[in-house]
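Bug #77: duplicate submission created two jobs. Keeping one. Sequence:
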Amino acid sequence: MADDAQAINPFETAKRQVDIVADLLKLDNGNREILKHPKRELTVNFPVRMDDGQYRVYTGYRVQYNMARGPTKGGIRYHPGVTLDEVRALSAWMTWKCAVVNLPYGGAKGGIICDPKHMSKGELERLTRRYASEIAPIIGPEMDIPAPDVYTDSQTMAWIMDTYSMQRGYSVPGVVTGKPISLGGSEGRGEATGRGCAYVIREAAAHAGVKVHGGSVAVQGFGNAGSVAANILHDEQHAKIIAVSDSKGGILNPEGFNPHAVEEHKKKTGSVVGFPGSKPVTNEEILETKCDILVPAALENQITKRNADNIQARIVAEAANGPTLPDADKTLYEKGITVLPDILANAGGVTVSYFEWAQDIQGYFWDLEDVNRRLEKVMTQSYAQVHKTALEYKVHNRTAAYVLAIQRVVDAIKIRGIYP
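Kept job's structure:
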């Protein structure tokens, strides 16, 4: 699978997905070109003082893909493998993700080429604040609202919010989402991606003839989204969690186990590996485990043409971004497997980010029950619209989600017109 993953340019994949939908919607070349180009890209190279007193120059990006439906929204990732094409692709996917759940946003994404695992907290703070200063001219509550992504968190967002606010001379909590509650963050934001995924699984299961209650679930990637989805499926929908994994390996028990106990084990040991009463499995084997529901919640490019035929789940719910390659989609569809695409299945995170932004702008905050009720409504309505579109166009759910999202973006472009 590694070879497949390395050969794929994510932005080429994103543009290919646009072409597939443009053909279905019979879009003209002008609209196709607009949809295949980011509106704005910023590359910044900036020095950071390291703990040893030396300076290192880091490269960061911020890409704003499309603003037809509103200000752009999207995370910032810190990773040694960040590339401009990756950030472009992620910003495109954020555009469609916001549109598929009908949020008044366009998509954006940011990233810094760095290895946060080998940086101190002080170095990360100086890196973050300088990057925030560099991209400050193009972000803001009415323009572009960053959020956490790979190896960034609520502390990162607090530093960005503070840096931006210092430049403005007053507090601007709405400049980022995913903040600590004490700085204007939202209740329920931390578990929103996993919770939204669980809601979509529940809705899809009814159409796919799959019983979640007592059904078997395998989760590749027992991080934030994967562990929350497992916990909610176990606690609220009484599913049986039979396999989970992290970057160090996986565990399997066909009789099922308590995901909360696995979480405690991971906190103590640093991995799910070695959980009592389980047998070890690889991340590749997790994907091919016989189960009712498979939740890929780790990295992109996991289900490929090479292993798609070995997938035995009846529902694949993509809590991660881009875990299934386009060639694999066709195979899964022909096998009768219901795929819940990432731009729908993991849109709970951006939905509650939208709620956070709305609360910040109002200066009025909701309780957890209210947040979860609103999230459930958005996710269930969005799944119903995707399912209806899939039946109407006789396509699988990913194409249906893209049809729904891209049509909404195209409608906004047409109604607004092209300036000047």
